[in-house]
Design brief:
Structural class: alpha+beta
Mean pLDDT: 95
Distance between the termini: 47 Å
Low-confidence stretches: none
Strand content: 15-25%
Oligomer: single chain
Radius of gyration: 17 Å
Shape: globular
Length: about 210
């Protein structure tokens, strides 16, 4: 079992594209890089790179990666090998490295699906059709829509400083529909209130 959680040397977005473009499954750049792709520039350093996939398509991902990469289930603060033939029913994250000593190169996020919709695991009533969860860069790189990525960041139990910075950086660039969706999703997950909703209600602070 690995415990070197900070041992990261993330691959680039272009390297991720080269790896995943050959796989017969839907995938999207997620995390901070998704927000930077939306903005069209790198706004900060990234300690990792996240690739979002649909849970139902995990077998294709495993088959494509397992020969060249070592895949670890990240579950409840521990890392353990993802074994061949093992279906991940509840694990949400997989960390990937070249071998058992190499630094981690990228992280795979498995998301829930129901029929033709993405389902937000923390509050399953929040969902969107697959065709409405992603955008593409001019180069054709698929990435998670910014309002959904910000929901993942803001919906966490612990909002990190970089998440707060990302939110304030990206919010002024969201159109009204995207910002409205994010606010409503946060209200649904946090009916007693959320600081980001309060901030969004003061547009003079961020416009």
């Amino acid at each position: 079992m690995r415990t070197d959680y900070d041992h990261w040397e993330p691959i680039s977005v272009s390297d991720a594209v080269k790896i995943f473009a050959k796989i017969p499954a839907r995938w999207y750049i997620a995390g901070g890089w998704a927000l930077d792709l939306y903005l069209g520039e790198q706004t900060r350093e990234h300690g990792d790179i996240d690739i979002l996939i649909l849970r139902e398509e995990q077998a294709a991902i495993y088959a494509a990666l397992a020969n060249e990469w070592t895949l670890y289930k990240a579950d409840q603060g521990t890392l353990s090998l993802w074994e061949e033939g093992e279906y991940l029913h509840s694990v949400g994250d997989v960390w990937v490295s070249r071998n058992e000593e190499a630094p981690f190169s990228f992280q795979i996020m498995l998301v829930e699906t129901e029929q033709d919709s993405w389902v937000y695991r923390r509050e399953p009533s929040i969902r969107r059709p697959f065709q409405d969860i992603s955008l593409k860069t001019d180069q054709g790189i698929p990435y998670l829509k910014p309002e959904i990525q910000l929901l993942y960041k803001g919906g966490s139990k612990n909002i990190r400083e970089k998440d707060e910075r990302d939110f304030r950086k990206v919010l002024p660039f969201l159109d009204r529909q995207a910002a409205g969706w994010l606010a409503q999703a946060l209200r649904t997950q946090f009916p007693d209130g959320h600081p980001w909703i309060d901030y969004m209600n003061r547009p003079s602070d961020w416009n």
